Structures are given as structure tokens and as C-alpha cells.
């Protein structure tokens, strides 16, 4: 691992666990650290530490400090836009009698020490099979761009935009590659997206997120599939770790283990747990 990559992980450990920042003697490659953080979708978190630590801030060029500050400010504005769209869409669905469940994204940002530093993506909402077509009729007047109606007959979600904010409306939270595994997953998913939902508040609007057991599994399953297919960034691992830290006392561990075993995901879960401990600073006993 390159020195700037080691420093990047040290910044994350400091941000999340308060550990000391390990800066090699004579280290000056802060531009490389910032580029790595951006590639890993974690510049908000790492950049905040860089700007807040006097030793690092004084070692950065004025140009780099300005770029990092600009990125963080833009990211904060993106959070405001996404949260505004989320509240608008969820409130319209709720008024139509459609309960939606927020997947990943803005819900997981709430578990960060500074939610506004999590790099934004899109909004994923689950409404299920029964109200999937109805949801299309509700959100179409809100959308500046939306999939053709035929999107309701294929895939796991349809897409639309509200301004520049992308939203995915899901009838399935995910699909698994074999009929047997998919059958088990849909059973687990149906329970986790309808029972023991966890409410979060956004500007006075209640937004539901999945049950804790299912969400712990789903966040990991999503990042693992990214790892297998097209790679993943540090942000996804941070999401998983911070969710586990915040919600572990609410998770029925035996239920979670059952889910992992049924879907043959226990060994990958344990392997990536080692990554959280070794590189991201999560205490082994906590994982």
C-alpha cells in the first residue's frame, strides 16, 4: 500500500474513532491523499479532517485547501437538495396511502458523525409489488424526467429525476442470481421491508428505513455485489461500519446470522469484517 493510501485510512479512523492520525515523517503528498479520497467517495470525511488538523492544513497548498473546501460546501448543498426531494416524494406517496422505505443513501448518512460529509448519491425508495404501478402515477407529476411506463414490467425499479436528483423506485430491493437464492432473499426482504421498520425524521417528515437485522444484511449484500461486479469505494464500507456501530444494540444477532447462513453470506461477512477492523479502525470486539 502506498504511503498516501495509508494516510487516507488513518484520516478515516480519526474521523470515526478518534484515533491518532499517523503521518509519516516528511510526508507532503496531500494532493494524492485528496485524490484517493475522492476516488473512494470519501473526500468529505477525509477532507474535513485535513482542514481541521492544523498540521495538515498548514502543509496543504492554498489551492488544495480551496478545492477541498469547495467540494465539502457543494456536498453539503447536495444533501439539502436530496433531503428536500426525499421529503417531497415520501410525503406525496404517503398522502396517496403508499408506504415507502428508504434504502441506503440519505438514511445511512444519519449514522455519520457529520451526516453532511457523506458523499451523496441518489435516492432509493422501496414500495413493493402491490403499489409499484400506483407509485408511478403519484410521482410522475413531480418528475422532470421519468422512465417510460414499460419500465414497470421489467427490472427491479424504475428511475426518475426531480431536477437533477435521481430517484429509483423499487418493487424489489434486489434480485439474486439463482432461483433458489432469490426465493430465499425475497422472503427475507419482504419481512425486513414490512416489519419492525426504523423511522427517521427529515424536516418533520417520517421516513421509514428497513428493520435493523435486514438492513445490516442488505447494506453488506449491496456492497459485496458491487465488489464482485464493478468494484466498491470506501464510502460503502464506511456506511456498513457506521450502521453497525449505531444500531448493533438493536440487532437480533441470531436472526442476522440465520439470514447470512441461509444466503451463504457468512464467510464474506466475516472476511469484510476483517477489512473494517484492519483498515477502518472498528474494534474487533465490536464487530
Characterization of the model:
This protein has 287 residues and is of the alpha+beta class. Helix content is 55%, strand content 11%. The chain has helices at residues 3-17, 30-39, 43-52, 54-59, 62-95, 105-109, 132-139, 179-192, 212-229, 234-247, 253-262, 266-279, and strands spanning 101-103, 123-126, 145-146, 157-162, 165-170, 198-202, 205-209. The strands form two sheets. The protein has a five-stranded mixed beta sheet. It has a two-stranded antiparallel ribbon with strand order 6-7. Helix 1 (3-17) crosses helix 2, helix 1 packs across helix 3 and helix 2 (30-39) runs antiparallel to helix 3.
Radius of gyration: 20 Å
The count of strands amounts to: 7
Number of helical segments? Answer: 12
Give the overall average pLDDT.
95
Q: State the major sheet.
A: 5 strands, mixed
Determine the N-to-C terminus distance.
Answer: 24 Å
> pLDDT under 50 segments (min length 5)?
none
Assess the beta-strand content as a share of residues: 5-15%
Strand order of the largest sheet: 1-2-5-4-3
Q: So what's the overall shape?
A: globular
Q: Assign a percent range to the helix content.
A: 55-70%
Secondary structure class reads alpha+beta
SSE series:
HHHHHEHEHEEEHEEHHHH
Amino acid at each position: 500500500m502506498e504511503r498516501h493510501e495509508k494516510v487516507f485510512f488513518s484520516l478515516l479512523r480519526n474521523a470515526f474513532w478518534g484515533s491518532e492520525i499517523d503521518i509519516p515523517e516528511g510526508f507532503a503528498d496531500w494532493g494524492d491523499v485528496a485524490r484517493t479520497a475522492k476516488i473512494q467517495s470519501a473526500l468529505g470525511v477525509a477532507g474535513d479532517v485535513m482542514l481541521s488538523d492544523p498540521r495538515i492544513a498548514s502543509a496543504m497548498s492554498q489551492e488544495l485547501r480551496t478545492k477541498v473546501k469547495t467540494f465539502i460546501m457543494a456536498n453539503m448543498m447536495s444533501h439539502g437538495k436530496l433531503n428536500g426531494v426525499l421529503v417531497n416524494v415520501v410525503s406525496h406517496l404517503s398522502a396517496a396511502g403508499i408506504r415507502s422505505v428508504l434504502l441506503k443513501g440519505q438514511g445511512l448518512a444519519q449514522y455519520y458523525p457529520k451526516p453532511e460529509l457523506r458523499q451523496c448519491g441518489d435516492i432509493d425508495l422501496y414500495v413493493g409489488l402491490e403499489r409499484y404501478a400506483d407509485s408511478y402515477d403519484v410521482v410522475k407529476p413531480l418528475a422532470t424526467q421519468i422512465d417510460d411506463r414499460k419500465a414497470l414490467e421489467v427490472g427491479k425499479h424504475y428511475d426518475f429525476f426531480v431536477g437533477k436528483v435521481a430517484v429509483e423506485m423499487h418493487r424489489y430491493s434486489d434480485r439474486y442470481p439463482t432461483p433458489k437464492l432469490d426465493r430465499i432473499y425475497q422472503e427475507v426482504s419482504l419481512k425486513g421491508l414490512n416489519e419492525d421498520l426504523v423511522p427517521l425524521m427529515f424536516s418533520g417528515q417520517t421516513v421509514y428505513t428497513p428493520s435493523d437485522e435486514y438492513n445490516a444484511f442488505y447494506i453488506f449484500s449491496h456492497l459485496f455485489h458491487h465488489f464482485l461486479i464493478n468494484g466498491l469505494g470506501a464510502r460503502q464500507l464506511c456506511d456498513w461500519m457506521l450502521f453497525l456501530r449505531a444500531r448493533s444494540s438493536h440487532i437480533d444477532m441470531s436472526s442476522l446470522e440465520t439470514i447470512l447462513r441461509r444466503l451463504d453470506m457468512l464467510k464474506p461477512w466475516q472476511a469484510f469484517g476483517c477489512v473494517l477492523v484492519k483498515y477502518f479502525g472498528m474494534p474487533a470486539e465490536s464487530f
